[in-house]
Amino acid sequence: MKIAMIGFGGVGQAFAEIVEEKHQELQQNHGLDVEIVAVSDVMKGAIYQPDGLNITKLLECVKRTGSVESYPSSSQTIKGWNSLETIEKAQVDVIIEVTYTDVKTGEPALTHCHRAFETGKSVITTNKGPVALAYQELTEKAEKHDVFFGFEGTVMSGTPALRLPLETLAGNEIKEIKGILNGTTNYILTAMESGMTLNQALEKAQALGYAEADPTSDLEAYDVRYKAAILSNHVYGVHLDPDEIFCAGITGLSVEDIQEAKRDGEKWKLLARISQNKGKVKATVQPERLNQDDLLARVSGATNAIVYECDLSGTIMLTGAGAGLKETGFSLMIDLIHCHKQKQGSKIGGGSHS
Ligand SMILES: NC(=O)C1=CN([C@@H]2O[C@H](COP(=O)(O)OP(=O)(O)OC[C@H]3O[C@@H](n4cnc5c(N)ncnc54)[C@H](OP(=O)(O)O)[C@@H]3O)[C@@H](O)[C@H]2O)C=CC1
Ligand SMILES: N[C@@H](CC=O)C(=O)O
Questions:
Q1: Is the overall model pTM greater than 0.80, yes or no?
Q2: Distance of CA 66 to CAs 6, 8, 10, 60, 118, Å?
C-alpha cells in the first residue's frame, strides 16, 4: 500500500515512526506492506520517491535540517510539489491528511479530501475540519469513487471513540453522549488544580504536542465543538452545523475558581453533551462543575473519556488518550489496517468509515 503524507508535523512524523517500527508486524499479522512514497509540507518542503522513502533517513533529514528536501535524490526523485500536486500526481493508494485543523473553513484539508477522492485515492485523516463540516458530502464522495475515508483519530486521538458506538455497541439506541473530548484543556484544568496558571500549563501542553497549531481552538472549545459535530454525524447520522452548537471555553475560569471547587469537593471539566430525541440532535460544549465522585471528574491530564448512554448496555464509558503524537499516529495506523482489509473484501472487528 503506497502512501502520500500531506503535512509532516508532530502527528505525521509520529505516524512515520510507527510505520517504521511496526512494518514487519503489519506484514506478518495483516498482510499489509506499507510504503511511504511522498511527503508534502509547507515549511519542510516536499519529496516524491516512487519506489519508497527510507523512513529512518527521512526522519533524520527532517531532524537535522528541518526539510524533507535534504533527503538524497535518485534519478526518480521529484522535489517541491505542493499538497495538491502531490495528491493528484503521486501514484499512491492512500493520502494521509495531517495538516492543521482550521476551525472556520476546514481548509486546506477539505480541498485535499475532495481532490483525493476525485482522483481515486483513499483518505485517512486526524483533521477535524473536513469531517465536522462536510461529513455527508465526503462520505458520499468516497463511496462513489469506491475509496476509503478513515477519521478515527478526529475524536479522542487513538482511543476508539468512533468505532466503539457503531460497531461494538451496535443494536443499542444511544440516547446521550457526553465526555471530556479535549486533551489540552483537561491537561490545563488538572494543572490549575495544583496552582499552575493557564498560560504555564498551556506552554507545557504545547511542548507535549497536545495543542492545536492555534491553541485558541482548544481554549475556546472550538475543537470540542467540531468533535461534537463529528459525533452527531457519525453516531446519530444527523448533520449539526458547528456554529449552531453552544460553545464556551475555559478562559473564563481562574485558578481561584478551580481551587474553590476543589475545596467544595468538586472539579471543573470542559464537557460536550450530545443527545438525540426523535431524530433531533442537540449539543452543547461548556465547562461544568462536577462532584469529585463523578466518573468524569476523575479523568485527569491529557486523558479523555466519553460516556454513551445506551438503552440495552446501560452506561458505557471509554477512557484513554485524548491527544498525543504517538496515540494519534496509532489512530492513522488502525484506519490504514481497516482500509487494507476493506480493499481485500474483509473487515476486522466491523466496518470501515466509508
Ligand atoms: N496533536 C494531537 O494530539 C492531535 C492532533 N490532531 C489533528 O491532527 C492534525 C495534525 O496535528 P499535528 O501534527 O499536531 O499538527 P502540526 O501543526 O504539528 O502539523 C501540521 C503540519 O501540517 C503542515 N501543513 C499545513 N498546511 C499545509 C498544506 N497546505 N500542505 C502541506 N502541509 C501543510 C504544517 O506545515 P508548517 O508547520 O510547515 O506550516 C505542519 O507541518 C491536526 O489537524 C490536528 O487537529 C488530532 C488528534 C490529536
Ligand atoms: N488539540 C487537541 C488534539 C486532539 O484532537 C486536544 O488537545 O484534544
A1: yes
A2: 16, 11, 13, 9, 32
